Please model this.
Amino acid sequence: MTTTATGQPAAAAAGAQPGPSRWRPRGPGPRLAGAAVSGALVALALPPYDLWPLAPLGVALLVLLSRGLSARRAAAVGLVHGLATFVPLLSWLTVIGPDAWLLVALLEASFLALAGALTPSALRLPGWPLWVACLWVAEELARDTVPFGGFPWGRLAFAETASPFTPYAAVGGAPLVTFATALCGALVAAAVMAAGSWRRAVPLVLLAVAVPVAGPLLPVGAGEGRPVTVALVQGNVPGVGMDPFGEREQVLRNHADATHRLAADVRAGRVDRPDLVVWPENASDIDPFQDPSAKALIDDAVRDVGVPVLVGAVLDGPGPDHVSNTGIVWDPQTGPGARYVKRHPVPFGEYIPFRAELTGLISRLDQIPRDFYAGHRPGNLTVGPARVGDVICFEVAYDGLVRDVVRGGAQVLVVQTNNATYNGTGQPYQQMAMSRLRAVETGRDVLVTATSGISAVVRADGTVAQQAPEKVARTLVAEVPLRDRQTLATRLGWWPEWLLAAAGLAAAAVSAVSSRSAARRRRGSRP
Model:
């Protein structure tokens, strides 16, 4: 452990000593303006910009701006920081409507406001950079959980999918990546506060540098695996925006036609014969069990390619008020078999909370006449020779859903997705970053299959081996290993996140109680 000249731990000294007064902006205006800059730095660190070093710098600036504030004023600083992050990050929601965009951004920013309110308490403790980093984990845990199952977009971890912080995912998952990123930023802030004393500042700078430097030293991957050849079919869609599927049955025909072309290429020797084929979410925009022509299109394509195909389809039911977002294993000999039903439908996108109360107030909700049913089992499917872990679209953002399929025996991950509504925005790139982090976290190759892009083959170290651009029909064929070993992150599960979050909240609570007790004692000692 690095120590100061007095023998104290450097991080403890940072918490015990006040910084120079020049690092304390006067008045709310400069602080709020600075908070907007700190939030913008985090937004630029995230896709589609991917300027990952800006994430710890954004954290550092926010910490500096929070010093010496009351909880209420620090909350305002955190709120402005959050708005400056989420307003640009979620601009793709303008496709749905500017009101939806701004309301979701405000909701997400409110969690940063709560974390901001706790930050001044943490800053009063010895070793405060650790507690600040833990508070970031706690904030993300809350935001990823509530309301309606949470919305994990904009996590610090998703800015660090191709950086020295990335390997932390193999040890403690996305929460540990967030912790390491925030800790680096907090140590930078501590070094700035200690700028008047080189004996204190230099060790803090060295600690801040050590956090990302240690990342590449961590073990990544889950060993070797038996190779199989996979084909990912991106058939494209006829429309854009809120009506990407436009013509009835055309999306299904696009994917069937692309599969026939793949079969012809295999027969001609232009590509290797795949062991399995993956179609994206909503590849069949018609329920093939209700429409004989749709079923015939799928049957013909699967028989032509001659190997099992994982087909994404929206099925009617259960009951008259629901539909199911489903991955179906379709065998060339026996037809449709095992299924996975999406476990986490998107609120206000795939189902309407409080439907009876809201539909009369918001006319756009009529575009979702039936709620998507939530499945109850993880997406563990056998497709040909592979045990596949299927997650559908936004599910890749949720730690537990991905971890469940790996613990259930998945040897390779599949992300079936339909991002056609958001073509030309940052959303497909943001989702791709999540897939890259999941590859490192689980030690599995990740097969991303999208209706209109971005489809990709992501290796277990997070690198992208192949990628199809948006708005084109493209089939990717690649060899991937089937792995059985689990990373430490998978084995530890939710423990790192909950322990780090609990540590941050407990530290802030202890500091707040101690501060109030000290204030009461001072008042009682006055004559």
Summary: The chain has 15 helices and 13 strands. Residues 1-21 have pLDDT under 50 and may be disordered. The two ends are 45 Å apart (CA to CA). Residues 226-486 form a domain with the Nitrilase/N-carbamoyl-D-aminoacid amidohydrolase fold (CATH 3.60.110.10).
